[in-house]
Specification:
With about 170 residues, the chain is α+β, with helices and mostly antiparallel strands. It is built from 5 helices and 7 strands; from the N terminus they run βαααβββαβαββ. The protein has a single domain, classed as Aminopeptidase. It has helices at about 10-25, 35-45, 45-55, 105-120, 135-145, and strands spanning about 1-5, 60-65, 70-75, 90-95, 125-130, 145-155, 160-170.
């Protein structure tokens, strides 16, 4: 049975572990060890995660299949949105599934949860930025009716990358 648990400060160790593991598994092969380390040291420390968890405009959810931790979801509303601010939208900043649970529909269930939350918050759309070379994710979002609306540059460590901004409207 799938369930979602809204993260609080009591979950910081679990969140940190899964954040680092899924980030390294997703981007480790395509980046230098230095860039990976710089990102982890700036964004996935206890201090950084505490700041994010205590921001009422950032929402974290751990996803479980029975008792097994499968992945996590991070949504941003209002001023917590990262590169673009759209008051009628929710940003999906992170949607990560552990490697051993990939390709089993869990990512879809996380996306469905994000849509449900956005609608509960009475928002008209969801948006996200995805690395231009993450073809699997891009295909997944296209299948779910996201449209590319622009590109952005983001920095990982010391290296600039291009991200595709994709958006899904509800009405």
């Amino acid at each position: 049975m799938i369930n979602f648990k809204k993260c609080g400060l009591e979950d910081i160790e679990t969140l940190k572990e899964i954040s680092i593991k899924t980030f390294v598994d997703t981007y480790g092969e395509d980046n230098t060890e230095k860039n990976m380390s710089l990102y982890i040291q700036s964004s996935l420390t206890d201090e950084a995660l505490t700041e994010q968890l205590t921001n009422s405009d950032s929402l974290f959810y751990l996803m479980f299949d029975n008792e097994n931790l499968v992945g996590y979801l991070k949504l941003n509303i209002e001023k917590a949105q990262s590169k673009i601010y759209d008051e009628d939208s929710v940003e999906i900043e992170r949607i990560y599934v552990l490697d051993e649970f990939q390709h089993r529909g869990f990512g879809q269930q996380m996306l469905d949860k994000a849509i449900e939350i956005a609608k509960q918050l009475d928002k008209g759309s969801l948006w996200l930025a995805v690395w231009e070379k993450n073809n699997g994710a891009i295909s997944f979002y296209h299948k779910n009716h996201f449209k590319q609306v622009e590109t952005i540059t983001f920095i990982l460590g010391e290296t600039p990358f291009t991200g595709l901004v994709m958006k899904k409207w509800f009405h």
